[in-house]
From TrEMBL:
The keyword Nuclease does not apply. Keywords: Repeat, Riboflavin biosynthesis, Transferase. Its EC number is 2.5.1.9. The keyword Hydrolase does not apply. It catalyses: 2 6,7-dimethyl-8-(1-D-ribityl)lumazine + H(+) = 5-amino-6-(D-ribitylamino)uracil + riboflavin. It comes from the Bacteria. One of its GO terms (biological process) is riboflavin biosynthetic process. Pathway: Cofactor biosynthesis; riboflavin biosynthesis; riboflavin from 2-hydroxy-3-oxobutyl phosphate and 5-amino-6-(D-ribitylamino)uracil: step 2/2. Residues 1-97, 98-193 form the Lumazine-binding domain. Lumazine-binding repeats lie at residues 1-97, 98-193. This is Riboflavin synthase. It comes from Luteibaculum oceani.
């Protein structure tokens, strides 16, 4: 389980293909604190550390075909920046919201607007989505945010300078695909309502 508060950025050092899976070697300042079998969210996708490379100070995670189909991880290239968050410790504050690291869908960046001291990002879905509410929580590439101007085909968020500088939002371009995880409470309510 995660909170959607990004700890740091990682950089893709290399990508290996094995059958329908992709393995990513990630260089990060978290390297010395990681161990095999640890869960780390990569752009909001929970992946397991399966190898450590002390010579290059990087680690490897593998995304299976199902994960690649539902996320934007297949679009990563060598040099891509990735938002990273280790799983939460259950004895501290929950600064974001409850995030599972299980991406529900992707959305495309529809608009980016620099405001005075912040950035507005508008996102669009390929098909109608009904699991968001005005001023509710959403996780975009692993970042916990509050959404507004919510409608079935999209929503908007505003990014403060700290988030912009410390996540891969600063590299987003119009048309780019991002990972979306809807709020878990909303998903359970929708299930109970038969939606």
């Amino acid at each position: 389980m995660f909170t959607g508060i990004i700890e740091t950025l990682g950089r893709v050092k290399s990508i290996e293909k094995s059958g329908s899976n992709l393995s990513f070697w990630i260089a990060s300042n978290l390297y010395n604190e990681l161990k095999i079998d640890q869960s780390v969210a990569h752009n909001g996708v929970c992946l397991t550390v399966d190898q450590l490379n002390s010579a290059d100070e990087c680690y490897r995670v593998t995304a299976v075909d199902e994960t690649l189909k539902k996320t934007n991880l297949g679009n990563l290239k060598e040099g891509s920046l990735v938002n990273l968050e280790r799983c939460m410790i259950m004895n501290g504050r929950l600064d974001g919201h409850i995030v599972q690291g299980h991406v529900d869908t992707t959305a495309s960046v529809k608009k980016i607007e620099a405001l005075e001291g912040s950035w507005l990002f508008e996102f669009a879905f390929d098909k109608p989505e009904k699991l968001m509410v005005e001023k509710g929580s959403v996780c975009i590439n692993g970042v916990s945010l509050t959404c507004f101007d919510v409608h079935d085909l999209g929503f908007t968020v505003t990014i403060i300078p700290y988030t912009y500088e410390h996540t891969n939002f600063k590299q987003f371009e119009v048309g780019e695909r991002v990972n979306i995880e809807f709020d878990i409470i909303g998903k359970y309510v929708a299930r109970l309502q038969g939606l």
